Amino acid sequence: FFIYFKVQSANAIMKVLIPIKRVIDYTVKIRVRPDKKGVDKKAVKMSMNPFCEIAVEEAIRMKEAKIASELVAVTIGPTKCNEQLRTAMAMGIDRAIHIKTADALETDIHLQPLAVSRILAQIVQKETPQLVLLGKQSIDDDSNQVAQMLAGRLRWPQATFASSITVADDKAEVLREVDGGAQRVSVSLPAVISTDLRLNEPRFATLQNIMKARKKPIEEIAVDELGINIEPTLEYLEIVDPPVRKGGVFVDSVQELFDKMKQHECL
Amino acid sequence: VFTCLGSVFGIMLRNCAVRVQRKWLHAHFNRYASSLVVGEISNGTLADSTKSCITAATQIANNESVSVLLTGTESERVANETAKLQPVCKVFYCDSQQYTSNGLTENVADLVCSVVEQGNFSHVLGGTSSFIRDVIPRCAGILDVSQVSDCTKIVDESTFQRAIYAGNAICSVRSNEAIKVLTVRPTAFACDLEQTSDVASVEKLEPLPAFDGKQFIADELVASSGPSLTSADAVVSGGRGMKNGENFQMLQTLCELIPDCAMGASRAAVDAGFVSNDLQVGQTGKCVAPNMYLAVGISGAIQHVAGMKDSKLIFAINNDPEAPIFSIADYGLVADLFDAVPKLTEIIQNNKAAAK
Fold first, then answer.
1. B274-288, pLDDT tens digit by residue?
2. SS3 at position B294
3. CA–CA separation, B187 and B266 (whole Å)
4. Which tens digits make up the pLDDT trace of B230-245?
5. Taking CA atoms, what residue in B is nearest to A248?
6. How far apart are the first and last CA of chain A?
7. Amino acid A66: pLDDT
8. Which of A3, B19, B318, B354 has the most crowded CB, counting CB atoms within 10 A?
9. Is the ipTM of this complex over 0.90?
10. Least CB-CB distance to A187: which of B159, B214, B330?
11. Which chain B positions have a beta carbon within 8 Å of A188's beta carbon?
């Protein structure tokens, strides 16, 4: 009995669910489509959302530190989204869930945070993780809503914009980046935590791990099977280029820079 | 006397008829919007971001009333101050312990949802800040409605403008929800509000059961002097080109010579540990739109530009003529910043001395 008990406490049993998103790579200069209905994604480089990568990395570190026992990544979207699940597994995630939508679905604008939070809530009920760790925002939609919506829906505590996370004794102490600096909070698990830029620097998947990841399982669930309404409630009437700033000029000296500032009454 | 009484009675009847008609219209067509602004207290007074949000609420078509909700230990006093603002019709506040120190988000969210449901509000708004970003979407999740984040324009009661892809695409979004939940970008709406002697009513709310599961440990705020980055008239920002944290002192000195000037930084400078994260300007940092933005040693990556391209005038100093910052700067100087910044400081100082 005692040996069993000791083994139990030495190995934490914490399952972490990491939702990730496939987005246009952050280095790409996006082009708004002439039909004003979206952004051009043909032959454009796609990647895992940088904040999601940070969440994946943090979860893997928890597993390496023997704080987490099982890591499950989940994504929602068309067939090609499985590429990002493969990347996550190559980095070190154990298994993945792909909620498959129609291939034509533009996940940047028509798969909206409300629908995502509804789907994730159901996955949470299915998987019963102690922690949901996800990026604070996706660099396409820039809404910064999913983590908070999910936490509200579940009535779980939330710790957003995490720049450091320490898990111990069924609690997570999180240092959050806020407007005036940082705030330290403690959340009881289960909880939802969203990652900010400075939480960690994600690793690159080695070729060896990319090969190994091919054997890891991806569970596919058609979104219709979930019985959740994912119809967009926000209608994108028009998507256009931002107003172009008229070009500026170079000045030749610091004196001239000062003169311009003075001329425009900046000083 | 009879004529007088008659006309008074006539007016009363007419007003009554108008109210009845309004109520019927409201019930049948919900034509009138009623907004709840989730407020924030900063430095002992109503935050500028909340004032901007109040302005945004007044721009909602058919807006009938703007109410403000405040929480925390200072909320009673600030509620009474807020009641004097001209556009505000009603102020709710709750100063119970669980709403201190900018909330525990969970408690404030529960309170907001309760007020929304009881008050029959059509719109719930907050002025973007880390607190509002934390609270409002949680409310949307509890209410099971969509949220439109960081609106830059109120087109009508259902249609809003916002940016996606780090500000590289502007969207016109219509919310088909019965309750419109939005956050608004403070730099897009004026924060100077008129006062009125017709003071709004102030209502103290009873606290809801406290949320169990989150504890506030400590604020680790950076002591800052000078104007706030998001509302300063001028901003001088340093990037990776500054090479280290000590060199930012040079920019601080420059800031002190420029009226209402705050210091900012690029993500690269924050990541490198030159300055603290509260100075970060960019897609995922602070969004600023001052009259003058001076970018020093900043290359001008998409993500940084997203946070400052609405500035009225942009000046840039960088030793790389190809730096992307020059394509959005109104005036650019290709120079070594370690040369140019001290020179600029000296010229400003001499100019000030000469003016005296």
1. 999 999 999 988 999
2. strand
3. 19
4. 989 999 999 999 999 9
5. B330
6. 77
7. 95
8. B318
9. yes
10. B214
11. 212-214
